[in-house]
Specification:
The protein is an all-beta fold and 667 residues long. The protein contains 1 helix and 58 strands. It is 1% helix and 49% strand.
């Protein structure tokens, strides 16, 4: 949530902590008012003071409260709870934006930018008084003190519109906005200082500074680093690309390059920095020296973090003419080589030696998505639009073109395969050797906006509102995410290529709401499965991942072998206490279709294709661990103190004694 750098709030204990702002005429407001704040309450009832101007005995000038977990307003002759909403529910322990707009006798209640309730008072809003503004408690009353965190407290002397509230709730203000009476962002105060009776700065032009009273003296501070919803503020919220370098996030926008550490965001524009053009186009590239490369419409740029400056390149085309327009960084080819579209040509550019290596004069479809695969003797160039897909291949001097009727939204070339996302939600697979479509699958109802690799087996696919992880081998979606705004709960519209950093953080940009992050790593233990049989616990001994799909074989002592999917659902059970597969202690893959299983009384071979058990006849009574090494040897231990090598060839089974355990030390 893009709030005040250095991203901190005030933490009140709900006992005697409060902020007092002395009276000033600018704080007396009549007829029209707007009060806003971000709140994270530890308690939502029965009555909690967010702020109040005056005392309850005077019926106050205005006040914002939580009343029985609802947002409430008091003012003028309305001393009771006529201004208490019945529809604006405040949640405990969560950040939420609250706003009350008053005009005449009417009140408008907003929660996270959405209008929730309209109430009409008995009297016109406001009554002049000379009392202080109290934040976190009411004057002379202790039982209704606010417990929790407050941030971005704002009071305006006019009635803001719905759009004004929604557009400014995520943005830090300058403080000189018209009608802004009070603005407490809690940004100037140092969290490391002793803040008893600490000055709280009003960033509005009225300088209605306050004092923070009565924090617990055993604490260092009431000002805390705030962990709010994972939204990164950008100078312009239509974002093209994201990359992470040196613990900073680099975000391309239509209004320049944004660099943020999650707290401070710095904006680089043509008017303020050495950069040519504000509209960033295409992807980012990080070279082997740690420099960041990107393109604007007018040039190629290299950002040098150590000196916080840029080097600009306007490059020659194959005819030698310097090009000063229509640049786009398409992709990284190698660590120090990138592919750039420059007007009607593609170039391979070496970032280490800062020179062009190759030119390709290729005719692309108009208004197209572009990707390319560059080898020394073989190149593939692909472009697509809403009507068709064009594939151009060059092998030595031979040139081949093919037009495919395919409404293309996104393209990714993966060696011999072209993956295409269509405007109507299909994932299409085109084989370059066969030169034809070999597979298609419906992924989403809306357009497939981006396709990119996560690893050699999985693709990250983005639609309008969802992100999918797709396994190429099994041709299935193994994970999907429907992203919603953490405050408003509206679906995000993904416009950029999602980016996964080295910490497994997924970064994604939205049309108009900035950049969001999502941690793909598990936060805590999750109960994956609860296998039971005959009312007894599973007693799982081993889990083997399936060789050909996203499934698992689970071995247990109580009821043998079971097959589960990736979510822990039981697909099939193969053994129970009434057959010889019960009591499985150890297992190992011995080839692509067979598992060797050890239970108390036998070794068995399980065929995963036929789903049958084949007994292995060996002259022993009890059996222990089994293992299969990289040299394709299978070993087992026998409780008679033998280590044996098991020979399994078709229907022939034998064993060799490898060692005694422990070895005979009497000789």
């Amino acid at each position: 949530m893009p709030l005040s750098a250095p991203n901190q709030s005030v933490d009140l204990d709900g006992i005697d902590d409060f902020i007092k702002v002395n009276h000033h005429n600018s704080l007396n407001i009549y007829q029209k008012i707007t009060i806003e704040a971000w709140i994270k309450p530890d308690s939502v009832g029965p009555e909690k003071t967010i702020l109040i101007k005056g005392t309850s005995g005077q019926c106050v000038n205005y006040g914002m409260f939580i009343k029985d977990n609802m947002l409430a307003f008091v003012s003028g002759g309305d001393c009771g709870w006529k201004g208490a909403s019945k529809k604006t529910i405040i949640q405990k322990g969560k950040w939420q934006h609250v706003a009350i707009v008053g005009t005449g006798k009417k009140l408008y209640f907003y929660l996270n930018g959405t209008l929730k309730d309209i109430i009409e008072l008995y009297n016109t809003i406001g009554s002049v008084n000379s009392e202080a503004l109290w934040i976190g408690k009411s004057s002379g009353i202790l039982h209704n003190a606010f417990a929790g965190q407050l941030d971005e407290v704002r009071i305006w002397n006019f009635a803001k519109s719905k759009d004004q509230i929604k557009n400014q709730m995520y943005k830090e203000l300058k403080g000189d906005e018209n009608g802004l009476v009070l603005y407490l962002a809690f940004a100037e105060e140092n969290p490391g200082l002793n803040n008893y009776s600490k000055l709280i700065i009003d960033k509005s032009k009225n300088k209605n500074d306050g004092l923070l009273y009565n924090y617990e003296k055993i604490k260092t501070t009431n000002l805390v680093k705030t962990i709010k919803p994972s939204i990164i503020n950008t100078s312009q919220n239509y974002n093209e690309a994201i990359v992470k370098l040196n613990n900073h996030l680099f975000i391309s926008t239509l209004e320049g390059l944004n660099i943020t550490d999650g707290i401070f965001t710095k904006v680089y524009k043509q008017s303020t920095h050495n950069i040519k053009g504000n509209i960033l186009q295409g992807s980012f590239h990080i070279d082997s020296d740690g420099f960041l490369w990107f393109t604007t419409h007018y040039a190629l740029h290299r950002y040098m973090p150590s000196i916080d400056n840029f080097e600009i390149f306007q490059l020659p085309n194959s005819k030698g003419d310097t090009i000063d327009i229509d640049y786009s960084l398409i992709k990284t080819l190698e660590k120090d080589r990138i592919l750039i579209k420059m007007q009607d040509e593609l170039i391979v550019f070496d970032t280490k030696y800062k020179k062009i290596i190759k030119y390709f004069n290729i005719t692309f479809l108009k208004s197209s998505k572009i990707d390319a695969l560059i080898h020394d003797t073989y190149q593939v160039f692909v472009s697509g639009n809403v009507k068709e897909l064009k594939i151009t291949t060059k092998s030595n001097s031979a040139l081949k073109n093919k037009i495919v009727n395919l409404n293309t939204e996104s393209i990714f070339i993966d060696d011999r395969i072209i993956w295409v996302g269509t405007t109507n939600g299909f994932l299409v697979c085109f084989d370059l050797y066969l030169y034809k479509e070999i597979f298609r699958k419906k992924i989403d109802k809306s357009r497939i906006m981006n396709i990119q690799p996560i690893n050699k087996n999985d693709l990250l696919i983005t639609s309008k509102n969802q992100v999918y992880i797709y396994n190429k081998k099994s041709k299935t979606i193994i994970q999907d995410f429907l992203f919603k705004h953490p405050i408003t709960q509206q679906n995000l519209n993904h416009l950029i290529k999602p980016y996964i950093d080295n910490d497994s953080i997924l970064w994604i940009g939205d049309d108009g709401l900035g950049v969001f992050k999502f941690d793909l790593k598990p936060k805590k233990f999750q109960h994956w499965n609860n296998l039971t049989f005959d009312s007894r616990k599973c007693q799982t001994t081993q889990i083997l991942e399936s060789r050909d799909n996203n499934q698992y074989y689970v071995c247990s002592r109580s009821h043998g072998l079971s097959k589960l999917d990736s979510k822990g659902n039981v697909l099939k059970e193969f053994g129970n206490n009434h057959n010889s597969t019960a009591g499985i202690k150890f297992s190992t893959w011995i080839n692509d279709t067979s598992i060797l299983i050890s239970n108390y009384y036998s070794f068995q071979q399980f065929d995963t294709k036929l789903e049958i058990f084949k007994p292995i006849s060996l002259p022993f009574k009890t059996y222990g661990q089994v293992n299969h090494d990289v040299n394709n040897n299978t070993y087992g231990s026998v409780y008679e103190n033998f280590l044996i090598k098991i020979n399994i060839e078709s229907n022939y089974q034998s064993f060799d004694t490898i060692a005694m355990c422990p070895p005979n030390i009497n000789n």
